[in-house]
Specification:
The complex is a heterodimer. By secondary structure, chain A is an all-alpha fold. Chain A is 76% helix and 0% strand. Chain B has 2 domains: 217 residues, Rossmann fold (3-Layer(aba) Sandwich); 69 residues, Alpha-Beta Plaits. In chain B, helix 3 crosses helix 4. The chains are: A mainly alpha, B alpha/beta. Chains A and B meet through helix 1 and helix 4 of A and helix 2 and helix 3 of B.
């Protein structure tokens, strides 16, 4: 019975996501797309960065798309549901242990994160042109980084979504999302921060760093990067931390 | 009588030490149409919240359709349907999908769900809206959709939290008819309301609650019989009413009464005939009467006699 209910919840979210796909893509892909155009196309054309910069940039952009879509696809509906629409109540009244409703939300976030990364990859390749050193031979590793990365951001999305009020959504973008993007090693490899050691270690709290570096390890291994075991271990720890707090916060909102 | 709901010493304290329920004992028989009547803040919504597993009790027990809300919340959810205070349909889905997905959450096969959904939409007169967006529905139609959703998994107990708040009179009467029909089918219904008339019209047993306590529970007729005899005459004065009480009670035809701040209440066996005398008493004490209200014995006069306050 529990599995049947769980899959019905999942089917509902997939149905809604499929229906809203164009909006979902616009919401999550616009920002990475702009970065691809400016940093991956215009700046190399202008000669401000070397053509090989795209090798370091592409994995970061994929990580960014994945993170933004995973986090937003959980946070935005959650803020709305708990804040005023209360639409989630029919799912909280479904005959299934309440924590599984939260698990289902995280899984939907993972799926949406993966879709975003999959869509951005060919677009990036198309705009940036041939990317030196790009390889798909480590597909398994990339998949692992994608899943654990999306799960971490999805859980973070659940935490944020069940914590903040609808009026604080704008604040979330300026004080959580923006710093995360700029200090997420998306536009530069982590080893590049050797030049500024305190930043290099401070950014390690940011889960996006591990997704970006993990993508580099898998897709453009010639760029200096954190090793894959470290990346996966860090993502698993961050996922556990985010999930623990997210579940606590979700349960507090779900059962008064 | 087999019991559908039984709570024992049910207590809820919210963070900040707000006590919403002070040890509530409720017994609702199978097939009852049970009303929880009380003003806003009485603890009605908290009670429904606990019985529907959405609020965790601080102490006490609650068993719904044989399942304990604390130890078997999933079992409770399987057996109940809930109509919330404010319609909360799934706005990403259309009307029919709302019902079909809800049925799927209860593990009901699609063909069965589809047949039931169409029958319910027909019965609740929103069949022509089956493929409409939820936002295209009026308030009354959304409320009916909520009832259809609460019924599609054929629950043993139906909970309705202030179901007619915000509805126009016509929609309210239509909803009453629907609820009467559901009750006639033998379903157990628990409804909260702060409309005395609604409780009196629909329920076969009513619990009067205030400030988290159960004040009285009985059939509407028995409750009305417990209301102080005679017509309630309520005088609002421009100052403290307490000094006038003794003189008011001494008037012929006034059987009982009380005072609270600037309100003087007298129960009279002779209808409104005592009014001139009451006004004279007020003026004799140099008080002006700013308002007069009359009410014959009913649930509200009982509520006033129990709490000293009006229902809303």
């Amino acid at each position: 019975m529990t599995a049947t209910v769980f899959f019905a919840l999942l089917r509902r979210d997939v149905r809604v996501a499929r229906r809203e796909l164009p909006f979902f893509l616009m919401r999550t892909i616009m920002q990475p797309l702009m970065f691809i155009i400016v940093f991956g196309y215009l700046l190399p054309k202008m000669g401000f960065v070397r053509g090989t910069y795209t090798t370091a940039l592409l994995p970061g952009i994929l990580a960014l798309s994945l993170a933004l879509s995973a986090i937003q696809s959980v946070t935005l509906p959650m803020v709305q549901d708990f804040g005023w629409s209360k639409e989630i109540e029919d799912r909280l009244l479904a005959p299934i242990p309440t924590p599984l409703v939260a698990v289902e939300k995280v899984i939907v976030g993972i799926l949406q994160g993966m879709v975003a990364a999959l869509v951005v990859l060919p677009i990036a390749r198309l705009i940036m042109g041939p990317i030196p050193g790009f390889t798909l031979t480590h597909f398994g590793e990339v998949l692992a980084v994608t899943i654990f990365g999306a799960a971490t951001f999805s859980a973070l999305g659940l935490l944020i979504g069940s914590t903040i009020s609808p009026t604080q959504i704008g604040l979330m973008f300026s004080i959580i999302i923006a710093p995360m993007i700029f200090f997420g090693c998306t536009y530069y490899p982590w080893r590049g921060l050797d030049a500024v050691p305190w930043v290099k270690y401070a950014v390690l709290i940011n889960p996006l760093v591990y997704v970006s570096e993990g993508m580099r390890a898998g897709l453009t291994p010639e760029v200096p990067h954190l090793s894959l075991p470290i990346v996966l271990a860090a993502l698993i720890v961050l996922l556990a931390v985010c999930w623990t707090f997210a579940l606590r916060s979700f349960m507090k909102r779900a059962v008064g | 009588m087999s019991l559908s709901i039984e709570t024992t010493a049910l207590r809820k304290v919210y963070p900040g030490d707000t006590i919403a329920l002070h040890g509530l004992d409720l017994h609702v028989g199978a097939g009852d149409f049970f009303g929880l009547l009380g003003p806003n803040g009485a603890g009605k919504t908290t009670t429904i919240g606990i019985l529907t597993t959405r609020v965790r009790p601080t102490a006490g027990t609650a068993v719904v359709a044989g399942a304990d809300v604390r130890t078997d919340p999933v079992g409770v959810r399987l057996r109940i349907g809930v109509v919330p205070q404010r319609p909360n349909p799934d706005r990403s889905l259309n009307v029919l999908e709302n019902l079909l997905f809800h049925a799927a959450y209860f593990g009901i096969a699609h063909s069965v769900a589809s047949a039931r959904a169409n029958a319910l939409l027909e019965q609740l007169a929103i069949a022509e809206k089956a493929h409409a967006k939820v936002d295209a529905l009026s308030g009354g139609q959304q409320q009916r959709l909520m009832i259809a959703r609460a019924l599609i998994h054929e629950p043993r107990v139906l909970f309705l939290d202030e179901p007619t708040v915000g509805l126009d009179p016509q929609a309210r009467l239509a909803l009453w008819e629907i609820l009467r029909a559901l009750h006639a089918d033998g379903r157990t219904i628990v409804m909260t309301t702060h409309y005395m008339e609604e409780a009196e019209q629909l329920c076969d047993r009513i619990a009067i609650v205030d400030q988290g306590r159960l004040l009285a529970v009985d059939t509407p007729a028995a409750l009305v019989a417990r209301a102080p005899g005679g017509t309630l005459i309520e005088l609002t004065l421009d100052g403290d009413a307490a000094p006038l009480l003794a003189a008011a009670l001494a008037l012929p035809g006034v059987s009982s009464g009380d005072s609270q701040a600037n309100v003087l209440r007298a129960y009279s066996a002779s209808g409104g005939q005592a009014i001139p005398a009451l006004i004279a008493v007020a003026e004799g004490a140099a008080r002006k009467v700013t308002n007069i209200r009359l009410a014959s014995p009913n649930l509200e006069t009982l509520f006033i006699s129990l709490t000293g306050r009006k229902l809303d």
